[in-house]
Amino acid sequence: MITLKWYYIVLLVLSCNLIGALNFAKIYAKIAKLDIKKGSGNPGTMNMIRTGGVLIGTITFISDVLKGFIPIFIIKHYFGNEMAVFCAMFLIIGHIYPVYYKFKGGKGVACGIGLFFAISPIVTAIAVVCLIAYLFVFHYGFIGSLLFVFSLCLYNAIASKSIFVAVVMTLLFLLICFTHRKNIVRFFKGEENKLNLTEIIKTQKQKRANHATIEGTVDSKINDIKSTENGESSSANNESEDSADNENNESTENSADSESTVKSKSTEDSKINDIKSASDNGANNGSAANNANSVSEDSKSASDNGANNGSK
User: What is the pLDDT of residues 54-76, one digit of tens each?
Assistant: First the structure.
């Protein structure tokens, strides 16, 4: 029997209820932008697999299992098996009727797997393997869930040899059945949604293959565009190089022409200077001849004057 003081019991029960109220299906659906109102409309593992695929459904499943396992494992270690079973009941209630989401939560199966792992790990592992095998063969998930919960509740009720545990396990099973009441009604009407894991896995592989094909096509188009742009840029570079070469050739020709023009001008200037110097030399020779003639005339006049003086 539970021997803890009442306020410890209240604290543990309240803590488990608030932890159980964390709905990872709604959290991950919001992150992945999934509409979990489709399918069965239940924010749980099975519907996450239907709407989002096996990967996100598995992540949701593991999160819910850990949510049930960790607190119940700690309580069992420190406060005993009966206290753990009692708190497990309120953890499941918190999962089904979460205070954070207007008391609209999951159906408690994945969370129940976690708490059953904390209470009886070996038997729960065997039951999980059987549940997975069932889901691959049969396609009604809620039947597998009910069989799973029923078998574990029955085992723990018998193995504990405690009336208190047996009563709690019975209430727990009835609560899980109550959460699946709509599934039961739809099943008898022939309207229950099937969960074909094999088909879901094939669909997910096909989606990934199509996505990879689309990405490959987009990448090839991008590469073609880049190669076209590179070709255009290289042709533009070649044209610019050709124009630059033409400009260089033109500048070289212009410089050669200017050099020849300068040389011809310098030759003409030298010829003109030679002509000028020749003319200057001719003028100088003419003035020298004039000077000699004047000298000879002066000498003649002087000799004439001397002859005249002698005759006198």
Answer: 889 899 999 999 999 999 999 99
Q: Distance between CA atoms of 53 and 28, rounded to whole angstroms?
A: 12
* Rounded Cα distance, 292 and 281, in Å: 17
The model's pLDDT over 120-139, given as tens digits with 9 standing for 90+, comes to 999 999 999 998 888 888 87
| End-to-end alpha carbon distance in the chain | 193
| Phi, psi (deg, nearest 5) at residue 142 | -70, -30
Q: Scanning the structure block, which residue is given the tokens 């003419």?
A: 286
To which residue do tokens 């803590």 refer?
Answer: 15
Phi, psi of 55 (to 5 degrees): -65, -55
Residue of 214, 216, 52, 50 lying closest to 142 (CA atoms): 50
List, as one string, the DSSP characters of the chain: ---S-HHHHHHHHHHHHHHHT--HHHHHHHHHT--TTSTT---SHHHHHHHH-HHHHHHHHHHHHHHHHHHHHHHHHHH-HHHHHHHHHHHHHHHHS-GGGTT----SHHHHHHHHHHH-HHHHHHHHHHHHHHHHH---HHHHHHHHHHHHHHHHHHHHT-HHHHHHHHHHHHHHHHHTHHHHHHHHHT-PPP--HHHHHHHHHHHHHHHHHHHHHHHHHHHHHHHHHHHHHHHHHHHHHHHHHHHHHHHHHHHHHHHHHHHHHHHHHHHHHHHHHHHHHHHHHHHHHHHHHHHHHHHHHHHHHHHHHHH-
* Other beta carbons within 10 Å of 275: 10
CA distance 51 to 37: 9
- Going by C-alpha positions, the residue among 163, 133, 136, 130 that lies closest to residue 149 is 130
- Positive or negative torsion for Cα 62, 166, 87, 101: positive
